[in-house]
Amino acid sequence: MNQCLLCDQEFIVPIMFHQIFSLTKLLPSQLCAHCLSKFEKLNKISCPICSKNTEEAKICADCQLWQEKYQGNLLKNIALYRYNNYFHDLMVAYKRYGDFELHHVLKELCQSYVRKLPADLYVPIPTSPEHQAQRKFDTVSAIFEGIVPLTPILKKKSGSKAQGEKNRQERLMSAQSFLIDKNIKIGENVNNLNIILLDDIYTTGATLYHARDKLQEGFPNAVIKSFTICR
User: Fold this and answer.
1) 202 near 231, Cβ under 8 Å?
2) Which residues lie below 8 Å from residue 96, measured CB to CB, with a gap of 6+?
3) Which strands make up the sheet holding 121-124, listed edge to edge?
4) Cβ(83)–Cβ(54) below 8 Å
5) Distance separating alpha carbons of residues 181 and 201, to the nearest angstrom
């Protein structure tokens, strides 16, 4: 019997036949079926660039703005879940109130998919030094550690206001807030790298585009995409 991290109810973990013989062992489930059902998966009718659900399978308004700014050099993002009220409450408890145990919930929501994403580097979006000191952990790295090998080559500038504290216009107008950590060793062959940026939420895309831009300064020939748990 396992105990659900969200509702505290005990539940029996169903045994999946394909997992018995899988070489990749997933972490033990800590979500009951009832709580898991509250996370709404994105449907197939979505923006082909950022995964946002749309009425038609065409580029969304956010990506149209990025297309204009970057002359078509758009960042392909894969997301799994819609940012509904239940996800909002989870992220408030995890990020605003620093409930570290909830990283297990987010890890469970994405681990089976993220393990299948091929890349040379998996780069987590970093927490600002101020929030790191306040929470005592990095919210994004905590989710993806143990799923794929992380390369924390990006750093957040001190004094950067959190995206969650900004309105939509402030997000879109935000300045570059990332630095490349030169203490992180990548290896000798850095040409034509396949890099995946990892984050929890895609809202306007500003954070991920800034991260992509900074990485392209150091790795101009890299192919960079992103993954977020929700959109």
Assistant:
1) yes
2) 164
3) 77-81, 223-230, 194-201, 121-124
4) no
5) 23
Distance (Å) of CA 225 to CA 7, 10, 32: 35, 38, 32
The pLDDT profile of the chain, 231 residues, written as one tens digit per residue, is 889 999 999 988 776 555 555 555 667 788 999 999 999 999 989 999 999 999 898 999 999 999 999 998 999 999 999 999 999 999 999 999 999 999 999 999 999 999 999 999 999 999 998 988 899 999 999 999 999 999 999 999 887 666 666 676 777 777 888 999 988 888 766 778 999 999 999 999 999 999 999 999 989 999 999 999 999
User: Which pair of structure tokens corresponds to residue 15?
Assistant: 């045994």
Residue 151 is encoded by which pair of tokens? 């390369």
What's the whole-model pTM score?
0.89
CA 13 from chain centre, in angstroms, equals 26
